[in-house]
């Protein structure tokens, strides 16, 4: 164990970022590495690791952003991966990010890192939120207690970044030492004598083993022989027999007491007068009754901003003005003059042309919609409203066998279902992850699809919007309720940290929006082109007409939609948002009345997930579970659409 030793960081040495979930690790990672990052699975797992490089003093240092953890004695796959990175990789410096207003949550990890003998820096992030709650941390005293560098930061405002970069140049080893009592200490020494050398101290590994860490068995089997493994287990049993409580519990209690003492010595909480309006609004936003009108206000503002401003005003400017008035006529005239072959001319400017359909749809129609949605979503993220929404809807999700945490992947699904399926890992049990994945694939439209849907709804009465949202919400609830009865397993506890309600920082909203638009242009637009080429090919070889005829009884008779809507559902296999764009074009052309808009939008919302999401579902949940989910969703979407059409017709309802 090093004591107050300081070394200079050498070129190429790895920096690893660790910390609890939702403390700003990824923001710190982004600020240190810039926009260039690689994302890959940790070998043998489904856990995603983000890597990049940080330039310090002209030298480049690899940086790894580990999954969020609550302990280094693993209880989840994410925690196993983080522990294994520290155990197996050549780590030269650890940056631990803590939530300044909740040190008791992060300091146990600090103590474990110190026991590992790893040099690390403590980053006290969300410094402004701690101050706003009257929490004053004596940084110098905390640094003295830890024996390492302490850097206060407000990552979203880039405050403290320079100080962090300066501190990264040196490696300082912490000086925390804890005595766990004679019995446990004797057990530690015995196990230490058996263990092999590794990147972390033998003492830390011995403590993990005494605490009952089963995930270390495979590591031990690779490095020591069977009699030694048997002896370690024997020592663990001998120590455990001398206590009534589990040794792991006792170790955690001793660490907690040290954390409490450190906090008592370094943190002062003052009573402060907070903005009464902010406090009341924050409380209302998560109240089971008053939270509903707050949510309705949010939805109305979202509708006006995305559905009216984005989908009508801005889309019309681009579609009718830029593309309709200049780009499409000019390129069509150029194609007529220089491309003699009708096949290739149609490829670019025909009914299913790359310019006249793919780029017109993706840039002129959808980009303004998703752009305004990205802005709105960024505001919701940074304001602190989403965690309050989780609190408000916890009881609803609990009836579906889930906790309020499930609202986070569900809301993230409004950005991208593929990424949201990955974040379903925050649900602690397999049963919860399957239910969340099912609901995401079934009825949570991604940003591009939702933007188009809001655009269509913006052109009809508000009652159609209410009906669409109500039907989708009801179906998600009923399917979730049914799934909770059929899928066996446990439900986890709900523990959540609520940030203060705050005014979002404009620069952060701009950065997030530009980043997401960049994703849309690179990931979604090429798929629009592919989708158009598929339609073009099917049209040229006559298959499209055949499919329209075959699907006519389903689309025309059962759903009550024009035969041309078959194209939208067909291409919906590639991307649901592209299918929605096809329906939008029919609506713009006056081929869909309000009743048909409702039926078509409910059906396309409940349609099978896009190809990318399908592949992630297979990766995360397995092929059998994915096949079962898709086999349910596909017919279910058309059945619901048909039932709505039947009800509207039988009662003579005209929306």
Question: What does this 3D model show about the protein?
Answer:
The radius of gyration is 28 Å and the shape is elongated. The chain is 63% helix and 9% strand. The longest helix has 48 residues, at 291-338. Strands 3-4-5-2-6-7-9 form a seven-stranded mixed sheet, sandwiched between helices. It has a two-stranded antiparallel sheet with strand order 1-10. The protein has a two-stranded antiparallel sheet with strand order 8-11. It is built from 29 helices and eleven strands. A hairpin with a 6-residue loop joins strand 3 (38-41) and strand 4 (48-56). It is α/β, with parallel strands linked by helices and 655 residues long. The mean pLDDT is 80. It has three domains: 6-172, P-loop containing nucleotide triphosphate hydrolases (Rossmann fold); 182-269, Helix Hairpins (Orthogonal Bundle), CATH 1.10.287; 291-490 and 508-650, no CATH class. The chain has helices at residues 25-33, 77-88, 103-115, 127-132, 139-146, 161-167, 182-192, 202-210, 217-223, 226-240, 247-266, 276-285, 291-338, 342-349, 354-383, 385-392, 394-398, 407-412, 417-423, 430-443, 447-457, 462-486, 506-540, 543-558, 565-571, 576-588, 594-605, 611-621, 623-650, and strands at residues 6-8, 14-19, 38-41, 48-56, 59-65, 91-99, 120-125, 135-137, 150-152, 170-172, 267-269.
Give a brief rundown of this model:
The chain is α/β, with parallel strands linked by helices. It is built from 29 helices and eleven strands.
């Amino acid at each position: 164990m090093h004591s107050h030793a300081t070394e200079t960081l050498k070129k190429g040495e790895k920096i690893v970022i660790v910390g609890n979930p939702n403390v700003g690790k990824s923001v710190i990672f982004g600020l240190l590495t810039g926009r260039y990052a690689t994302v890959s699975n940790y070998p043998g797992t489904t856990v995603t690791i983000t890597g990049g490089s940080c330039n310090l003093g002209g030298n480049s240092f690899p940086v790894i952003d580990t999954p969020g953890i609550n302990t280094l004695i693993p209880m989840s796959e994410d925690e196993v991966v983080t522990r294994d990175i520290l155990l197996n990789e050549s780590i030269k410096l650890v940056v631990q990010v803590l939530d300044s207003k909740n040190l008791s949550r992060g300091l146990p990890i600090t103590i474990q890192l110190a026991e590992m003998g790893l040099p690390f820096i403590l980053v006290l992030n969300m410094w402004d939120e701690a101050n706003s709650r009257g929490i004053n941390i004596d940084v110098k005293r905390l640094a003295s207690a830890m024996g390492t560098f302490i850097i206060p930061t407000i990552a979203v405002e880039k405050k403290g970044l320079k100080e962090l970069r300066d501190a990264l140049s040196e490696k300082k080893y912490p000086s925390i030492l804890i005595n766990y009592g004679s019995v446990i200490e004797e057990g530690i020494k015995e196990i230490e004598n058996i263990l092999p050398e590794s990147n972390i101290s033998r003492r830390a590994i011995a403590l993990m083993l005494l605490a009952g860490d089963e995930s270390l068995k495979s590591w031990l089997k690779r490095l020591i022989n069977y009699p030694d493994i048997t002896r370690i287990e024997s020592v663990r049993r001998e120590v455990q027999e001398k206590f009534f409580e589990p040794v792991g519990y006792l170790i955690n209690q001793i660490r907690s007491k040290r954390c409490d003492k450190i906090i008592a010595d370094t943190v002062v909480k003052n009573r402060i007068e907070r903005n009464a309006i902010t406090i009341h609004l924050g409380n209302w936003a998560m109240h089971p009754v008053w939270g509903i009108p707050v949510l309705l206000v949010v939805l109305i503002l979202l509708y006006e901003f995305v559905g009216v401003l984005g989908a009508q005003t801005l889309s019309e400017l681009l579609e009718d003005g830029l593309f309709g008035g200049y780009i499409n006529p000019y390129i069509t005239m150029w194609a007529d003059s220089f491309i003699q072959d009708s096949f290739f001319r149609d490829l670019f400017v025909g009914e299913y042309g790359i310019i006249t359909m793919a780029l017109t749809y993706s840039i002129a129609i959808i980009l303004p919609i998703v752009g305004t949605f990205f802005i709105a979503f960024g505001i919701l993220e940074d304001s602190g409203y989403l965690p309050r929404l989780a609190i408000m809807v916890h009881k609803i999700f609990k009836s579906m066998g889930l906790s309020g945490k499930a609202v986070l992947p569900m809301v993230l699904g409004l950005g991208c279902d593929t990424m949201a399926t990955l974040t379903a890992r925050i649900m602690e049990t397999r049963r919860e992850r399957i239910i969340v994945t099912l609901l995401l694939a079934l009825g949570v439209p991604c940003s591009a699809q939702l933007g188009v849907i809001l655009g269509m709804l913006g052109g009809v009465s508000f009652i159609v919007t209410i009906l669409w949202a109500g039907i989708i919400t009801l179906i998600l609830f009923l399917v979730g309720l049914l799934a909770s009865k059929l899928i066996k397993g446990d439900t986890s506890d709900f523990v959540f940290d609520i940030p203060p309600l705050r005014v979002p920082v404009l620069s952060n909203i701009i950065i997030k929006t530009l980043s997401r638009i960049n994703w849309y242009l690179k990931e979604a637009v090429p798929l629009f082109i592919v989708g158009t080429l598929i339609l073009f090919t099917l049209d040229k070889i006559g298959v499209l007409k055949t499919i329209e005829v075959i699907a006519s009884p389903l689309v025309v008779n059962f759903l009550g939609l024009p035969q041309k809507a078959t194209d939208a559902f067909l291409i919906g296999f590639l991307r649901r948002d592209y299918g929605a764009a096809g329906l939008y074009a029919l609506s713009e052309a006056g081929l869909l009345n309000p009743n048909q808009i409702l039926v078509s939008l409910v059906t396309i919302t409940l349609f099978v997930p896009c190809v990318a999401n399908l592949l992630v579902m297979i990766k995360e949940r397995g092929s059998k579970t994915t096949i079962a989910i898709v086999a349910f969703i596909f017919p279910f979407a058309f059945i619901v659409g048909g039932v709505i059409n039947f009800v509207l017709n039988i009662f003579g309802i005209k929306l």
